[in-house]
Amino acid sequence: MKKILLGVLVLLVVAAGVLFLLKGKDTYAGQTSSVSLSDGLNVGSTIFYTLFDQFGKAHTLDDSIYTLILVFAKDTGHVVKAYLGAQSADYLTKHHVAFVADISPMPVVIRNTFALPDLKTQPYSVNLILDETIASSLKKGAKVDGITVVTLKNKQVEKVEYADGVEALKAMIEREK
């Protein structure tokens, strides 16, 4: 019995090592994201960013984006993902919204094995924060355990609000600009 348990344990360790080697390489290595805020996430601040989505495509914030949805925690990310997943594929584009999610604290093997394959099933782009330095600059003025909704005009912050659920998020996205 001890030999069987030891054999199973060895197999598990070997399997975990192989998984780590196969999925432990950062698929975004060499792709440079950047974020610049003139005064944190505060009214009057100007935001510039280039972030990559779950498909590896670069997205640069431009004047066509009126609303940013920012999430820094797994639970709030799941709330936004569930809401957006129930909408049409062009929902974010139609409402001039960009969804930005911080996945920088996630180990690369977990990100590559679970998070990215799940995100790739979504019909919309998620601009991903992969670097903790970039995440910390966006967290200044944001509610890190909530859904931060930023209203922009020409990349300048006009309003910072916090959605406490799906209905509040929907109202903030769909209001007249």
Please give a handful of descriptors for the protein shown.
alpha/beta, three-stranded antiparallel β-sheet, 6 helices, 38% helix, 24% strand, elongated
Structure description:
The chain has 177 residues and is an alpha/beta fold. The chain has six helices and eight strands. The longest helix is centred in the N-terminal third of the chain and has 22 residues, at 2-23. It starts with a helix and ends with a helix.
Report on the biggest sheet.
5 strands, mixed
Overall structural class, as computed from helix and strand content, comes to: alpha/beta
Low-confidence stretches: none
Rg, nearest Å: 19 Å
Distance between the termini: 68 Å
Mean pLDDT: 87
Give the count of helical stretches. 6
Give the number of DSSP strands. 8
Give the SSE string.
HEEEEHHEHEHEEH
- List the quaternary state of the chains: single chain
- Overall form: elongated
Please indicate the percent range of residues in DSSP E strands (runs of 2 or more).
15-25%
Strand order across the biggest sheet? 6-5-4-7-8
| Residue share in helix | 25-40%
Topology:
Blueprint: H1 2-23, E1 34-37, E2 47-52, E3 58-60, E4 67-71, H2 74-85, H3 91-94, E5 97-102, H4 108-119, E6 127-129, H5 132-139, E7 147-153, E8 156-163, H6 166-174
Parallel strand pairs: 4-5, 5-6
Antiparallel strand pairs: 1-2, 2-3, 4-7, 7-8
Helix pairs in contact: 1-4
